[in-house]
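User: Let's play a game. I give you a shape written as tokens, and you guess the letters that built it. Ready? Here's round one.
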């Protein structure tokens, strides 16, 4: 199978990024100024289409535009070949139609809200050909569900000005303020030479809370403002569609000049989110959660996806999204407050906590489950399991709350990162409660007269906290060969996230305050 070695936006050089951002500041808005991180992708490198992501449509409905094709799931019309999705339009008598083709969608399997969505494609050409890469909203009847046409091409010249094998269109559909069907958009600038069937091109949109931008080959050619109150269609997740229609109201019918078979090759579909590489994790509201005490589920840390939480969907599915502007599913708990809902396997939330007193704590969680399948979760403090993993059985409804015990755990005084981690689907979390059972002056955390160091051994990140916060401490880490791998100065707790990339083995932590230096051994497992 072919291996792709295409440029990745994440690998853009620092110098190039600096120039682009400077030009953005000067007002050249058609340049790719946003720094993006890859969020999801289908490279079509497998042997068959990923049916956990895509649905293959089979029908002769004509796409509701009087199209002429029969959409099939036959390999003659849709297959993966040489690292590409290949959709082939054919002229042939098949059941009720004289043409066949294919259309796939990700409805009910994969949807996204906000980000950069792109596909690298080589398009068909000629009269009657109508390839498209587009998105539709998860809820609502068309066009109240919303539609984003990332790329549409109407081939040949049968339909007049809009037609052309060197013309691509970007549009959006919605209900306007008068509740009438409406579309806005434009045709992209013509290719300088040739047609879109000659080579691969990159078709994309950049979509956020206020606007949608259309791009071809990373150049913006159109932008729409979606901040109007009536454009609620565009504040929900959308799913993908890829198809090659033949004939219909817009392109008209193929004729003797149209060559068959016609192919659309899709190299990949990718979704990016704004880069979080510079995001800092901070407690929600600016103050760490206090232990002993109660932590409301929805008050997880600031910092965004991959930093303060991991949310597997890209939009707030709850009914209280106004509480915080995040992807996390926050909803009304039915008790006058909020909870985090729609929790599924692999999702996590982090909370900066301040344990006032070292000791043994009892841990309780308030949860609900309206699904026959039991959910499950555990807690970690500085990446060490605390308490027990617990199952969340059906509670009789999504707002029928019950308390479950995670048992007890010994916690050391000071600031820590508490992580809630979902081990299985489905359930809701309302709050966590910590109450002290017995206090003690001995912590399980390793310390000297300089710093707390935890955990040790460690798997990913490592935390170092001065015993006397407010006194400058110089922190250095050396590998077994004596090479320095980390250095910083801090007045308070520092979390060494770079440790995640270190090779397993022995390291040496050197801490210096004034003229006093301590060296200790730490171990990466």
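Assistant: Ready! My guess for every position:
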């Amino acid at each position: 199978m072919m291996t792709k070695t295409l440029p990745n936006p994440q690998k853009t050089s620092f110098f190039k990024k600096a120039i682009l951002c400077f030009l953005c500041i000067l007002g050249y808005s058609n340049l790719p100024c946003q720094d993006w991180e890859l969020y999801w992708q289908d490279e079509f490198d497998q042997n068959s289409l990923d049916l956990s992501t895509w649905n293959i449509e089979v029908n002769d409905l004509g796409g509701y535009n009087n199209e002429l094709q029969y959409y099939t799931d036959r390999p003659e019309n849709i297959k993966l070949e040489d690292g590409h999705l290949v959709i082939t339009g054919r002229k042939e008598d098949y059941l009720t139609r004289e043409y066949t083709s294919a259309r796939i969608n990700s409805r009910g399997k994969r949807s996204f809200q906000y980000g950069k969505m792109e596909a690298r494609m080589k398009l068909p050409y000629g009269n009657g050909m109508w390839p498209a890469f587009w998105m539709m909203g998860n809820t609502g009847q068309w066009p109240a569900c919303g539609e984003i046409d990332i790329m549409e091409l109407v081939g040949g010249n049968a339909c007049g000005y809009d037609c052309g094998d060197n013309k691509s269109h970007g549009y959006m559909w919605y209900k306007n303020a008068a509740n009438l069907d409406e579309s806005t958009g434009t045709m992209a600038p013509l290719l300088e030479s040739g047609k879109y069937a000659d080579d691969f091109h990159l078709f994309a949109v950049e979509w956020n809370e206020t606007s949608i931008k259309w791009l071809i080959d990373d150049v913006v050619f159109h932008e729409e403002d979606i901040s109007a109150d009536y454009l609620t269609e565009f504040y929900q997740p959308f799913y993908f569609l890829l198809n090659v229609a033949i004939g219909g109201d817009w392109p008209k019918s193929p004729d003797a000049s149209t060559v068959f078979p016609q192919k659309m090759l899709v190299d990949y579909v990718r979704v990016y989110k704004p880069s979080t590489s510079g995001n800092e994790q901070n407690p929600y509201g600016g103050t760490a959660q206090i232990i002993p005490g109660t932590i409301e589920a929805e008050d997880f840390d600031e910092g965004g996806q991959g930093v303060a939480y991991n949310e597997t969907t890209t939009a707030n599915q709850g009914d209280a999204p106004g509480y915080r502007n995040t992807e996390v599913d926050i909803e009304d708990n039915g008790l006058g407050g909020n909870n985090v809902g729609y929790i599924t396997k692999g999702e996590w939330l982090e909370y900066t906590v301040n344990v006032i007193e070292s000791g043994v704590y009892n841990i309780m969680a308030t949860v609900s489950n309206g699904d026959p399948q039991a959910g499950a979760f555990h807690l970690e403090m500085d990446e060490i399991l605390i308490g027990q993993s617990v199952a969340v059985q059906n509670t009789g409804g999504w707002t029928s709350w019950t308390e479950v015990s995670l048992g007890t755990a010994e916690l050391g005084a000071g600031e820590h990162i508490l992580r809630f981690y979902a081990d299985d689907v489905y359930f809701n979390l309302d709050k966590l409660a910590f109450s002290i059972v017995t206090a003690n002056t001995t912590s399980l955390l390793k310390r000297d007269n300089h710093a707390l160091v935890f955990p040790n051994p460690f798997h990913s990140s490592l935390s170092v906290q001065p015993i006397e916060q407010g006194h400058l401490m110089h922190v250095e880490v050396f590998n077994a060969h004596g090479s320095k791998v980390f250095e910083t100065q801090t007045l308070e707790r520092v979390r060494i996230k770079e440790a995640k990339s270190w090779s397993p083995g022995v390291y040496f932590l050197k801490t210096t305050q004034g003229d006093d230096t301590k060296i200790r051994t730490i171990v990466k497992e």
